[in-house]
Write a structure and sequence with these properties.
Elements lengths: L6 E4 L3 H14 L5 E4 L2 H8 L8 E4 L8 H10 L1 H4 L5 E5 L4 H9 L4 E4 L4 H17 L7
Parallel strand pairs: 1-2, 1-3, 3-4, 4-5
Helix pairs in contact: 1-6, 2-3
Length: about 140
């Protein structure tokens, strides 16, 4: 994790992408925000050796490679696992099974996309502030 690295958002809904882009701009974090519409495109990007994101916010249900499939690949690939990128689910697909599955895969958080702009902004702020203060192996 690089505190100044990009925030990777994997979201296939264009409207949600626009809302999140607006929120990140309003909050003013210096991190570049990079959107991917599917897990495979994100995986291709993350496989570049020089890429060290700050964190990943991933939807669960996506084309080509689901959020769960992408998490598995990041955790089981030695070159990707050593990057220690915080992986959080950010989804409307909230049910007990999904939350249990996420945490059993060592996902660092499961957040629900709120419908209110104010609540969504608050959630993004909490996520960013938490991870900005968190020590990680790549900070040394």
């Amino acid at each position: 994790m690089d505190n100044n690295g990009p925030v990777i958002i994997i979201e296939d809904d264009v409207d949600d992408q626009e809302i999140l882009k607006e929120i990140f701009e309003k909050l003013g974090y210096p991190n570049e925000v990079i959107f991917f519409a599917d897990g495979q495109a994100a995986l291709d990007y993350l496989n570049q050796p020089a890429i060290l994101p700050f964190l990943i916010l991933s939807d669960i249900n996506m084309p080509k490679l689901s959020g769960f499939e992408l998490r598995t690949k990041l955790k089981t690939d030695a070159d990707l696992a050593i990057k220690c990128i915080p992986y959080l689910f950010f989804s409307t697909a909230l049910n007990q099974e999904a939350v249990i599955d996420a945490y059993s895969m060592s996902v660092q958080g499961f957040f629900v996309k709120q419908t209110s702009m104010a609540e969504l902004e608050k959630t993004i702020s909490v996520i960013m502030e938490y991870w900005k203060r968190c020590a990680a192996p790549n900070n040394f």
